[in-house]
Fold:
Amino acid sequence: MESSLPLIPTKRYFTIGEVANLCGVKPHVLRYWEQEFSQLKPMKRRGNRRYYQHHEVMMIRRIRDLLYEQGFTIVGARNKMQELMQAERRSAPDLPNVVEGIEVIELTEAMLEESSYRIPKAALSPLQRNTMRQLRQELLAIQDLLSQDL
Structure:
């Protein structure tokens, strides 16, 4: 599950071996997924070495989840990824909505951990809970990095 995957470090580029470790798949699987998912296009340098950016690591984790956790076929996952990308393009949020979304994630995560209040299990799937926890961890890591620069 995604909760067992390590946090993504704050680096600009990742090698295929690093991405394989971060996403829990083997390098040959990543190369295969590159052929199957048109959205996945890592930068290639000397000797065809692949370098992935943060958003591509997140995309690979999403693909992994669709295939391994949700049971999609390659074709089904490809279609789902296209739907998700189109939905993200249509709803391209402005900055206030992004900040508001972060606050909602923070509030919901706090409610999940508060013993006096529990969200019914039917309200959030395990995947949604794990995704929210992962997002919260990444946001906290970004917040720490930003506070170090001040």
